[in-house]
Amino acid sequence: MKFRAAIQRSKADLRAGKGRRELRLAVELHATDGRIVHVKIRNIADQGLLIEATNSLMAIGDVIQVDLPESGVVSADIVWAAPPFFGCRLDDVLSGAQLAAALLKSEPTAYRLTQNGTSVAEGTLKKVYEDPVPNFSKVVFLIAGFWGLAGLLLFALI
Length: 158
Description:
The protein is an alpha+beta fold and 158 residues long. Helix content is 20%, strand content 38%.
């Protein structure tokens, strides 16, 4: 069975620039006072971005430098603040390739599958961490249980 997939923009995505894309991208931010702050970009557009910065002393009007994947360091002004979230206007417009590079480096956020223009499934993706090595105590418990049952069975037969 084949599915045709498409990325659809909502009306809220068109607030700034050519479309706002949601992402979770950890980057370094260089503040004007020389501090390096680790932040997460929550959404990005060709002319701006929304960053989340906990424990940060940034304010409206601050000029920052953000290190984006495959783009290098880009300059931006903070235009609104509602800590821990900050809206930034980029000094230069990002190209489609620069936006795509940021999205590719991002943690997965959501999906939507469409078939013939109709949404068939959508949801939020979550990162799953699986330990490839089984829990040692569970393995010992299973082995002991197996041998205990085998001993009971042998005792019952004698």
